[in-house]
């Protein structure tokens, strides 16, 4: 085997993302142990509620180690380049949705915001058009589910007009 | 003869006009959602769960049966026409099906997949109806320690044995198990991992997790690699119908696919990938037209599609008789039961036979409806496929968040949905399987309570797990299933070194 030939080269070597994954798993394991220690011990036969978290934490610890070894050996599957901007845009949309729902803006406004940002994340630049389509679609969903199927969706200023 | 009587009773329930309507709506919605690219049956069920909130359990489960089969059928349509299998079980279908569509034989490919699904689904549902009572008889003898051991087998086979990497599969499973701990412990009332947030005391909602991982995660992933893919929908040219030759070449693969699909689906072995690929390779070996394989051989669509559907009915066997979900879709079905406080298992057969047999009977009805509906409606499904990607994913996200908003319109719940979306994105990017997370979340708490019940009965003696012969055997099976991939990998490496 010669190094640096063909497509195999980038797969070898230390994978930094893999190390982060291993660290996160270890962190979750620590949180589990910490949380289990907060549970007051109960006197009952068999196992109390604090046992299973510790068992799972041990499992996560072992898996963190295994993932770390995989990362150090560069054994992770190859990844394609990705577009962080698109991901960010959808997350902004979700944040808007949560904010609007949280402040009582209602279902239609919230989901229209998500619709427009997602559509933009997929490369569309016709904001006004998407705004109209999103508003019509979410209004239809609201009417269908809130009025016809009697699910309760949060109402804001727009919903009260209907 | 009991089975016949029970099934006839179930048919009488399922054939009530209202229930027929529910089945029809379920089949229609299931296909419409399942046909959208990137949406597999598990997500179809998760997305449509809120639609059934307001129905009674019977009607809702019947609608579920329709959604389940409709979602599967929709998935294969997408696999054939645009070569984006929504799930790994449709990958074998996409291999030959998309080639057939490119060669202008999309019609017969869809037809053999629809009729094959019908044949396989019907045979497998008969299998389900006749096998279930026997399994229920065995299951009533299971003590809590045996259930715990059985769940260990399911955990291992779903996550480690059949995936690409046992380490990544087990990591996914343990993420799910961790999420399953969140909330109030049912036996003692102690809060775990709630960190003082009242919304977390109820635990993590399975639908929130599934929709976050599958829908939001998928949307983020597809958006992030938008510049890599270019999807092309194959137009359906020529006749929709199969020629006499097509029939002749299809019927044996249908039956063989069923023979692979049903038993493997019924074992707690997780997923339909294995039977579909077994069926594909068998058809490839047995065909009289070997040169057509890789260019669009109808056997390569007929067999795997039948295997896929038969294994879907097969996974209902452990789900209904033992309460054991062995795939993400089955886990979603279990969530559907749980929203009515119903726990599938031997007790449900005894206490609510009308519900169980009504569900089994509506599987037959849903299957027949699919066959009658889908071939004429294929033009409509193709039009759904033509929705531009930006609107498609924007719409999927709106619909996905709507489910959560309808169930719990709280900032915490929606933040969890977004968080699971990011988790799903990262897991896709780093190639961790998703299904074990869902199975871990839903099965973890059940396994824990069975174990604790077993230990309470034995006054804390863990040897009870080995003293019951059933439990001891199952734990050995779980251990073998855990070690097998490592041993086989070691053997493979040994061989590779020898070369």
Automatic annotation (TrEMBL), chain A:
One Pfam family per UniProt: TctB
Keyword annotations from UniProtKB, A to Z: Membrane, Transmembrane, Transmembrane helix
Protein's UniProt keywords contain Transmembrane helix: yes
Highest taxon of the lineage: Bacteria
Location of the DUF1468 domain: 20-154
Record carries keyword Cytoplasm: no
Membrane-spanning intervals of the chain: 17-34, 54-73, 85-115, 127-145
Full protein name: Tripartite tricarboxylate transporter TctB family protein
Organism: Bradyrhizobium aeschynomenes
Automatic annotation (TrEMBL), chain B:
Keywords in alphabetical order: Membrane, Transmembrane, Transmembrane helix
Transmembrane residue ranges: 20-49, 61-82, 109-135, 147-163, 170-188, 200-223, 316-335, 355-379, 391-410, 430-447, 468-488
Domain DUF112: residue ranges: 20-438
Short name of any one Pfam family annotated for the protein: TctA
Segment forming the signal sequence: none
PANTHER family cross-referenced by the UniProt entry: TRICARBOXYLIC TRANSPORT PROTEIN
Name of this protein: Tripartite tricarboxylate transporter permease
Species the sequence originates in: Bradyrhizobium aeschynomenes
Lineage: Bacteria, Pseudomonadati, Pseudomonadota, Alphaproteobacteria, Hyphomicrobiales
């Amino acid at each position: 085997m010669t190094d640096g030939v063909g497509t195999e080269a980038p797969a070898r070597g230390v994978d930094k993302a893999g190390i982060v994954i291993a660290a996160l798993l270890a962190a979750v394991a620590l949180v589990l142990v910490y949380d289990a220690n907060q549970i007051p011990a109960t006197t009952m036969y068999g196992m109390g509620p604090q046992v299973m978290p510790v068992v799972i934490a041990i499992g996560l610890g072992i898996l963190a180690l295994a993932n770390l070894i995989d990362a150090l050996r560069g054994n992770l599957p190859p990844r394609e380049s990705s577009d962080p901007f698109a991901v960010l845009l959808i997350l902004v949309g979700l944040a808007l949705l949560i904010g609007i729902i949280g402040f009582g803006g209602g279902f239609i406004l919230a989901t229209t915001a998500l619709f427009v940002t997602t559509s933009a994340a997929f490369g569309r630049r016709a904001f006004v058009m998407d705004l109209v389509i999103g508003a019509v679609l979410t209004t239809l969903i609201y009417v269908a589910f809130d009025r016809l199927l009697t699910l309760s969706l949060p109402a804001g200023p727009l919903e009260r007009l209907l | 003869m009991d089975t016949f009587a029970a099934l006839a009773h179930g048919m009488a329930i399922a054939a009530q006009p209202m229930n027929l309507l529910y089945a029809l709506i379920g089949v229609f919605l299931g296909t419409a959602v399942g046909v959208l690219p990137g949406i597999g049956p598990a997500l179809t069920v998760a997305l449509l769960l809120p639609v059934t909130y307001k129905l009674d359990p019977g009607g809702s489960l019947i609608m579920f049966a329709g959604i389940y089969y409709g979602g599967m059928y929709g998935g294969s349509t997408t696999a054939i026409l645009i070569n984006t299998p929504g799930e790994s079980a449709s990958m074998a279908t996409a291999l030959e099906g998309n080639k057939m569509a490119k060669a202008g034989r999309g019609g017969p490919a869809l037809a053999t997949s629809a009729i094959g699904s019908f044949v396989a689904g019907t045979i497998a549902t008969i299998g389900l109806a006749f096998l279930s009572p026997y399994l229920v008889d065995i299951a009533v003898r299971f003590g809590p320690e045996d259930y715990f051991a059985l769940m260990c087998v399911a955990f291992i086979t779903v996550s480690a044995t059949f995936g690409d990497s046992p380490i990544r599969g087990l990591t996914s499973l343990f993420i799910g198990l961790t999420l399953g701990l969140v909330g109030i412990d049912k036996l003692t009332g102690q809060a775990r991992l709630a960190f003082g947030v009242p919304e977390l005391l109820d635990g993590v909602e399975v639908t929130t997790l599934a929709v976050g991982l599958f829908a939001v995660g998928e949307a983020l992933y597809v958006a992030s690699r938008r510049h890599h893919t270019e999807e092309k929908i194959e137009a359906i040219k020529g006749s929709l119908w199969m020629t006499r030759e097509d029939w002749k070449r299809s019927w044996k693969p249908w039956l063989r696919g069923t023979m692979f699909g049903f038993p493997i689906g019924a074992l707690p072995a997780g997923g339909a990938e294995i039977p579909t690929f077994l069926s594909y390779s068998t058809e490839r070996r047995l065909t009289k037209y070997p040169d057509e394989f890789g260019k669009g051989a109808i056997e390569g669509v007929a067999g795997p599609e039948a295997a896929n559907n038969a294994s879907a009915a097969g996974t209902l066997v452990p789900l209904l008789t033992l309460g054991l979900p062995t795939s993400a879709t089955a886990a979603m079905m279990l969530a559907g039961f749980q929203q009515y406080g119903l726990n599938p298992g031997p007790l449900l057969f005894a206490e609510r036979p009308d519900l169980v047999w009504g569900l089994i009977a509506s599987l037959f009805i849903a299957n027949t409806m699919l066959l009658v509906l889908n071939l004429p409606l294929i033009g409509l499904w193709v039009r759904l496929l033509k929705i531009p990607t930006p609107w498609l994913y924007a719409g999927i996200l709106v619909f996905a968040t709507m489910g959560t908003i309808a169930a719990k319109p709280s900032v915490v719940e929606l933040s969890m949905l977004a968080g699971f979306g990011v988790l799903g994105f990262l897991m896709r990017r780093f190639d961790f399987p998703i299904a074990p997370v869902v199975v871990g979340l839903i099965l973890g708490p059940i396994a824990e309570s069975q174990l604790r019940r077993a230990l309470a009965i034995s006054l804390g003696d863990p040897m009870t797990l080995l003293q019951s012969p059933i439990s001891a055997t199952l734990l050995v099976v779980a251990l073998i299933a855990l070690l097998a991939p490592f041993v086989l990998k070691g053997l493979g490496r040994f061989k590779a070194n020898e070369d």
